[in-house]
Amino acid sequence: MSIVVTGATGHLGRLALTHLLARGVAASDIVAAGRNPEKVDALKSLGVRTAVIDFADPATLAAAFEGADTLLLVSGSDLGGRVEQHRNAIDAAKTAGISRIVYTSAPRADSTDLILAPEHKATEEYLRASGVPFTILRNNWYTENYASTLAQVAGTGVYAASTGEGRVASASREDYAEAAAVVLTTDGHEGAVYELSGDTAWNGSDFAATLSEVLGRAVAFEPLTPDAHTAALRAAGLDDGTVGFVVGLDANIATGALDKSSDDLSALIGRPTTPVADTLRTLAA
To answer: What region holds the NAD(P)-binding domain (predicted)?
Structure first.
């Protein structure tokens, strides 16, 4: 079995490599593919094969996918350009004869108003139409996304957001990467769509309490209106695009877009998902 992992130099892809090796996949059967030549070259220390790819250059994809059985298509990070990039990868995989594509998508991608979902929905639709057998991993939020929040709150003692009473069922990247490795190395996942989320969904007050525990200081949750949140972010010097994204995401959270969707993640990895506090402690350290 030969497995290609795209985004292998990124956080999720790199962890997926680790879990594939831990599950007994021979390093020689893994192709770690990424865009940055230096970072890709560094992965050779794991013993895996490597490939420099560019989603915008189908020729690089064809070379990386040649002879492979399975593709872990870690969604790209170029917002606004991902649909075309993912289509190129799916087309190249089909041409190469890859027998299954595992794609990392967004929660409830086909029915949500989540600001990040449209590109994932379009990719899922293209993947289904391609005729290539697939598994879709709809990853909820990564707890690690709050690394910058942790640093800011450590200085102010305030966690401010316009999420209302909305909840986030985040899990660690480690959890999601392990689930991907399980799906890549075990049978019975063809055609499956997994809604992956943490075991516990937390709201702003819960998160402030967790931050208090991790930081060893009192942290208060300051609920903001979207307008007040916008004004605060602009005052902090953020550009309009970033402000719109952050406030839009909080609005999604307020209406339940990142709430718990299923127990699929803990079922796949065979253990409870990593508590938010544990991930935050690692980040704080």
So the answer is: 7-185
The pLDDT of residue 11 is above 80: yes
Q: What is the mean pLDDT of residues 44-63?
A: 96
- Cβ-contact 46, 32 below 8 angstroms: yes
Encoded amino acid at 8, one letter? A
- Record the pTM: 0.96
The structure tokens 């339940």 sit at: 256
Residue 209 has pLDDT above 80, yes or no: yes
Question: What are the boundaries of each domain within the chain?
Answer: 3-139
CATH class of the domain whose range is 3-139: alpha beta
Question: What's the distance, CA 198 to chain centroid?
Answer: 13
Under a CB-based contact definition with an 8 Å cutoff, are residues 78 and 72 in contact?
no
Q: How many angstroms separate the CA atoms of 35 and 9, rounded?
A: 8
Show the beta-strand stretches assigned E in 98-188. 100-105, 134-139, 158-161
H/E stretch holding 222 reads strand 220-223
pLDDT of residue 156: 94
If DSSP states are collapsed to H, E and C, what string results for 22-90? HCCCCHHHEEEEECCHHHHHHHHHHCCEEEECCCCCHHHHHHHHCCCCEEEECCCCCCCCHHHHHHHHH
Checking if the pLDDT of 245 tops 90, the result is yes
